Amino acid sequence: MAQRGFLKSLLIVSTLAFTAVSCKPKDAKDCGFVKNVYGQNISWKTKEPIPLVINSSVPSQLRPAIYRAIKTWEDHAGEKLFRVIEDSSQASASPTKDGKNAIYFMHTWESNRQSEQGRTSVYWADDQIMESDIRINAANFSFYDQEPTQLVLASGIDGTVNALSNSDGYNFEALVLHELGHFLGLKHTTDRSSVMVTHLSAFTNRTVLSESDSESIKCAYK
Predict the structure, then answer these.
(1) Which domain range does residue 112 map to?
(2) Assigned domain for 28 exists
(3) Residue 130 pLDDT > 60, yes or no?
(4) CA 137 vs CA 129, 131, 175: distances in Å
(5) What CA–CA distance (Å, rounded) separates 204 from 186?
(6) What is the DSSP letter of 85?
(7) CA-to-CA distance for 204 and 171, rounded, in angstroms?
(8) Domain for residue 132, yes or no?
(9) Cα–Cα distances in Å, from 154 out to 3, 69, 134, 159?
(10) Which of 51, 181, 205, 214 has the CB geometry, 3.0–4.6 Å to 186, for a possible disulfide?
(11) Is 27 contained in some domain?
(12) 128: number of CA atoms within 13 Å, CB side?
């Protein structure tokens, strides 16, 4: 749900100071992207792969899901979008505006936002994204990679859980796929077939882009 630069539930968007430019033309096509005050689509304006640091807090057994989610966006964009960095020292130890892009597995979360499964902060100037960080809510949710009975619990402890029990699990690849969409500039949608729909239900393997998702990413990156 986009409201004046703030995407609720899964995404919070902040902005860098805008350069004062008058009478900027509006984009002719919406494409499903966040827009700046001039009506322009916000995206990374670079042909170089975007560096993304995987923080050491992300469990090793969930990391393959990040690479698959990245490949999905790149396959549909028709170009390499990301340069993954496994060295945590290349970004701050916790999410902050430091000029680096990173993904964090957070074991603490704001008490008034416990229902958030993840959050992506995007900083831009004019219509260009300058920095973005992804937070995964590991304080209140448990995740799995491909096998629903193998959960990484909210406490950070690995466990084997019956998928039919009261322990809900969430597909980590599906959540990261969604957050990477925000990372690239996409906003929420009401299209339930899209990976950019607001909520991810438990044990839902939403890891395939819809036709609209594919069209959106090509709009800015192909």
Answers:
(1) 2-15+34-221
(2) no
(3) yes
(4) 23, 20, 10
(5) 21
(6) E
(7) 6
(8) yes
(9) 30, 21, 17, 10
(10) 181
(11) no
(12) 7
Q: What is the pTM of this model?
A: 0.85
Q: Is the dihedral of CA 111, 33, 78, 53 positive or negative?
A: negative
Handedness of CA 161, 206, 76, 90 (dihedral sign): negative
Domain CATH number, residue 139: 3.40.390.10
- Mean per-residue pLDDT of the chain: 85
Q: In angstroms, how far is the first alpha carbon of the chain from the final one?
A: 26
Query: Is the CB of residue 84 less than 8 Å from the CB of residue 54?
Result: yes
Predicted pLDDT of residue 30: 77
What is the C-alpha separation between 76 and 122, in angstroms, rounded? 22
Among 56, 68, 142, residue whose Cα is nearest residue 104 = 56
For 7, the 3-state DSSP assignment is strand
